[in-house]
Amino acid sequence: MAVCIAVIAKENYPLFIRSVPVQNELKFHYTVHTSLDVVEEKISAVGKAMADQRELYLGLLYPTEDYKVYGYVTNSKVKFVIVVDSSNTSLRDNEIRSMFRKLHNSFTDVMCNPFYNPGDTIQSKAFDSIVSAMMVQAS
Amino acid sequence: MSPTQWDLPPELCCRPMAFVALTGLDVTYNAIHRAIWDAFCANRRADRVPISFKVLPGDHEYPKCRTKRTSYEWYIPKGILKTGWMNKHLNLVPALLVLFYELDWDDAVWKEKQSECATKVEIVRTSLQGRNTKVAVVLIQKKTPLPPGEDLVASERAASLCNACDLSGKSLFVLPHTDHLVGYIIRLENAFYEHAQTYYYTEIRRVKSHKEFLNKTTHQLLFVRHQFKIAFFSELKQDTQNSLKYYRTAYSLVHELRTHETNMLEIKTMAGFINYKICRLCFQHNTPLDAIAQFRKHIDLCKKKIGSAELAFEHTAWMSKQFQSFGDLFDEAIKLGLTAIQTQNPGFYYQQAAYYAQERKQQATHLCAHEASVSYPTPDHLETPSGALDFYGQRAWRQGHQSIDPPHMEKEKGGILALQMKEKDVPHSELIIALLSNAVAQFKKYKCPRMKSHLMVQMGEEYNHAKDYTKALKLLDYVMCDYRTERWWSLLTSILSTALRCSYLMAHIKDYITYSMELVGRASTLREEQKSRIEKNLIKVLMNEVPEAEPDCDQASAKAAQALWSDRMSLAGSNEFTIEVQDYVPFVQCKAKFLSPSFHVDDPVQLHVYLRADCPHPVRFSKLCVSLSNQEYNQLCVVEEPCKSQDILEASSQENMCLVPGKTRIYSFKFVAKTEDVGKKIEITAVDLMLGSDNGRCVFLNWRGGGGDAASSHEALLAARSFKSRGRVPEQHVEWDTVSIQASTMIISRIPKISVQLSHEPPALNNEMYRITVSIQSNEETVTKDVKLTAGLKPGQDANLTQSTHVTLNGLEMCDESHPALLPDIAIGDLQPGEKVEKCLYVRCVTTGARIFLFHVAYALSTKVEGKDITCRCHKDETVTIETVVPFEVAVKFVSTKFEHLDRVYVDIPFLLMTDILSASPWPLHLVTSQLQLAPTMAAMDQPQSQVEHVVLQTGECASECFSLQCPPVLNGTSSVASGQYLISWKRKSWCADAPVVTTVTTLPHVMVETIPLYVHAELPSFGRVRESMPVRYHIQNRTGLVQDVEMSVEPSDAFMFSGLKQVRLRILPGAEQEMLYNFYPLMAGYQNLPQLNISLLRFPAVSGQLLRRFLPSRIFVKVHLQCLAKARFVQYTTDCCPMDRVSHLSCRSLQFIQSDHGPLGCISDQSSPCMS
């Protein structure tokens, strides 16, 4: 299960960011922020013509000593980042994919809310609970 | 930096090369020897064999060889690898020893020299006792040797020398000291290289042979040692593939060793060495993925092998070094051509190394926090008798000890304490910063700007820990704006907090204020109480007091900072700061707007400044001023209140100067624009807000332009999208987000109260003096002065129009080229209220097409605005598009006297010129007159007179004229001649009599003139009468200088009987005329074809009868005989009953019959077509 989940706007500022060990929140913020380098590179590597057929799931962005960072970019260039503990070997690629899919669905629901302004930080309870379900339960 | 305990030994990091020792060379005093030595070692290129050479004296002592062990049964190894071993085989024990000796084959004292050489060989052999080192002899000779086999003396003596020295033939070399020294040397060293390879091969075999004596329980260390040695020898032998294999075996053996606290460091050290070798070889073999995989495995295996908890920092130091050296290897491989990618580059390893270094620092501060009373233990347990360790990775106080428990608890404690004390002196921050900056350089290269920023933040924080605040601030300042533009407020807040701490500790007032401002503002994610604390500190600074210390500062630094602040406070001056807040997110937001994008000069300019504070407490300011592009207005846009009360937090008596958090405050300014500024833009160049007071410290927050900051544009965008903006906002309450900045306005001239009307009759006719009447009426309430009219072609159109348009005020004469297209500033004078003036303007358009005409009326007027008298200039523009068309079209054609179209005319034969004038004007045209101006090549038959004089043409009507002309003879047979010009004078019918007449000239077309040899013309009455004879006379003129033979015949016709010569052949003299007389007797009424006259010229077959017939009438109108008229009624009846087609099909004969019985058919012929002739 994830230790940090983030939603980043098209303009690369955070819409939502949540991490498990709350005391080290800042470190996760930095991790997510730096992972945007790889995301940007991966998006730009896909040519303009191919942009329609691009896979949304970007896979493992980069491994750090302690964490694995996965990325996902919607067609409107909203980025999802999931950080997983390196020691957690039980998580397969497929499971990460399904986590992203769930996240994307929930995000779509948020966007469909007429009272939500695109570009504002996400404060939806439904989204929050979906994210909580995917996070490592803080012990 | 001096090498530390954790640096890898240089002998491990170098590339092992076969070691060959040279003796017998005197490189200092002997020039020849020097040259030989230089050829060996100077400028070795990569294509030379890998050998490291060393010159040693003949009696050099080599490391003693230990007596070979025959059994390992009772042997217990003391460690894995001796510290001196690698160096010994790299630099001390040669694979080959080469003895140089000067000896020519034909040396006079050969015997003596041979034995001396043998002695020398013997000496080195003895010093290498027990080693497998090969010995070779090189004879330095002065003479060039003969080809092998030819010099019998040489081969004989070589054999005897080998014998004497106990050398094989392969170990004796000859080096002739001639021109090709380098070539010989290269051949020599290749031979040496082979010998060295053999040596290392035997060494490998020797080490391998030990294996059978080892057992797994006591000799585990030896397994590792032997594998390492084999691998190292393989490397020396340049057999890197096998070497890699052996190192891998050694690596797995290291991890099979039993680990406990006492030997953990030794195992890790060796594992690190072997791992380094493996990675290095993998990169060398261009298999970087293998290297990375090996390194990952290594880290995973060793990560948990922390060893003694009291020396945990040793483990992190070692880990850091592992990452760093792998990063170095990776970087080196890249320099040699490897390509790295964004997600796999040396930067990550340096970064990780830095993390471990940071961890090491934390552990060190935690573990080495001894009390001051604890001193460095004596005796120093870290001292060893030799000054170095025997084995890699062992403790100085228990070298060679391999059991699980430390042998001496007291010594152990002392040793650990000594290590901890030493760790205290390590410059941790320096190490961390060096690693981070390495990583930064790498990430910069691999397009990771955010990673780079992150690392720079860490560097900044490390500098902060190292108390180098200036550098810390420099780095943090540099990256802050990246985080700000990316809107990562949480990260920005953390950086700002660090920066604030730094600036506090340095008592750097301006920075302190800047950072506080942003931390208090809306971009900061700090909690309210934190913001409140910072704001209070900020206010203290503004009141020239010392702020509270930042939390997380250590006591000593905070104290020093307090002192620094007090010093700053006591200093006079430099109490005024201007902070450009545009690029920050300050706690006061500002937006300035002109209420309209343009103002008329007689309206006051209105300007609003919106201010809003985001801080937790209300804030008071003492001055707000707006700077405009025209500085004269600046004094009008100031709000100021001398700050009397000291406390900025107190609500002011004038609520005006206090910003309440979350409330938007509006300051409005109003001023009258200067008349000079009409047509100019007024811009807000800056808005300044003064905080604090003159007697304390004042800070100007300066917004460039109309306000806004680093975050406001995005907020405005979001607000525009927001559903909230669509809701209704109560009056007076201003929604901050909906306020948009309007930083500039135009001053435009006053609205003119004057009417300009145009009356004219479009379209304009080409070339006429087109009249446009302009009427100007003043609707102003006061006198308009200095009214001026500018009229004419509007500038900026096609340049050709300027050439072809002429404007004048005088309508009585035609204007010409000298008249301009635009008449500027026609003075009209003053106009009283309600007065009206008319002005006529005449325009002559030489070409057709549309033109835009401009009528610009300008005047001056005095008025009062806000109690101020101003003179404004107003103007009104009126434009009109006028189409110019041609008034009429003239068509000209040449016809014969029979009105047949002519494509050529004949000399001296009259023809007609017909002109048609077709009116295209929508207005009636008065044709005053027309005139034909003939070219000399044309002559009029009579005096041509205009037939269209004073004719008035309505639209679409046509006037025609006809002139009879003749061409005088031309020189050669045929030529094209000019006809002349046709002039039409006209004007509009509607215009008065004295309007000028326009003359339009039409050039008549050229015509082909031809001379003909024979001219025929007929003389006959204008009509005939049925059954009445009519005489027809044909005149035939010979126009050549030759006698013409003419054959003539008259063809019979149904309509006529005739008398005369039916066929005749004549001869006509030059210039003479022949006359032929016929009597025609018409048989039928109506238009009848005359009997056809055929003429053929025998001399001019080209002149056909057909051509000549054109000069003759072809038919004639035959009237009814008077007696027949009575029967006409009956014929009418017959024709009515008889279908027309039947009539047409009747034969001529039957017609004749009808005619003879019932009278002529003339009554049914078409008599309506008039005959012009």
Protein model, in words:
- The complex is a heterodimer of chains A (139) and B (1173).
- By secondary structure, chain A is of the alpha+beta class.
- Chain A has one domain: Beta-Lactamase (2-Layer Sandwich).
- Helix content of chain A is 37%, strand content 24%.
- A five-stranded antiparallel beta sheet of chain A has the order 2-1-5-4-3.
- In chain A, helix 2 runs antiparallel to helix 3.
- The mean pLDDT of chain A is 86.
- Chain B is of the alpha+beta class and 1173 residues long.
- Chain B has 26 helices and 46 strands.
- In chain B, helix 6 packs antiparallel against helix 7, helix 9 packs antiparallel against helix 10 and helix 12 packs antiparallel against helix 14.
- Chain B is elongated and about 175 Å long.
- Chain B starts with 9 loop residues before the first helix and ends in a 15-residue tail after the last helix.
- At the A-B interface, helix 1 of A face helix 12, helix 15, helix 17 and helix 21 of B.
**Main structural class of chain A:** alpha+beta
The chain-level structural class of chain B is alpha+beta
Our Rg estimate of chain A from Cα atoms comes to: 14 Å
Helix tally of chain B? 26
Instruction: Tell me how many strands of chain B there are.
Output: 46
What is the overall silhouette of chain B?
A: elongated
Strand percentage of chain A, roughly?
A: 15-25%
The CATH topology assignment of chain A is Beta-Lactamase
Q: What about the largest sheet of chain B?
A: 8 strands, mixed
SSE topology sketch:
The complex is a heterodimer of chains A (139) and B (1173).
Chain A: E1 2-8, E2 14-19, H1 25-45, E3 57-63, E4 67-73, E5 79-85, H2 93-112, H3 125-134
Antiparallel strand pairs in A: 1-2, 1-5, 3-4, 4-5
Helix pairs in contact in A: 2-3
Chain B: H1 10-13, E1 18-23, H2 31-41, E2 51-55, H3 85-92, E3 96-102, H4 110-127, E4 134-141, H5 152-165, E5 172-176, H6 181-210, H7 220-236, H8 240-256, H9 264-284, H10 288-302, H11 312-335, H12 346-367, H13 409-424, H14 428-445, H15 449-465, H16 469-486, H17 489-506, H18 509-520, H19 528-542, H20 555-570, E6 576-580, E7 588-594, E8 598-600, E9 604-613, E10 619-628, E11 638-640, E12 658-659, E13 664-672, E14 681-692, E15 698-704, H21 712-721, E16 744-748, E17 754-760, E18 764-765, E19 769-778, E20 784-793, H22 799-803, E21 805-808, E22 822-831, E23 836-845, E24 849-865, E25 868-885, E26 888-895, E27 904-906, E28 911-919, E29 925-934, E30 939-940, E31 951-953, E32 958-966, E33 974-977, E34 980-988, E35 998-1003, E36 1007-1010, E37 1014-1019, E38 1023-1025, E39 1030-1038, E40 1044-1050, E41 1056-1059, E42 1063-1068, E43 1073-1082, E44 1086-1089, E45 1093-1097, H23 1105-1109, E46 1115-1119, H24 1128-1137, H25 1140-1145, H26 1148-1158
Parallel strand pairs in B: 1-2, 1-3, 3-4, 4-5, 6-15, 8-16, 18-25, 27-36, 38-46
Antiparallel strand pairs in B: 7-9, 9-13, 10-11, 10-12, 10-14, 14-15, 14-16, 17-19, 19-23, 20-22, 20-24, 21-23, 24-25, 26-28, 28-32, 29-31, 29-34, 30-32, 33-36, 34-35, 37-39, 39-43, 40-42, 40-45, 41-43, 44-46
Helix pairs in contact in B: 6-7, 7-8, 8-9, 9-10, 9-11, 10-11, 11-12, 12-14, 14-15, 15-16, 16-17, 17-18, 18-19
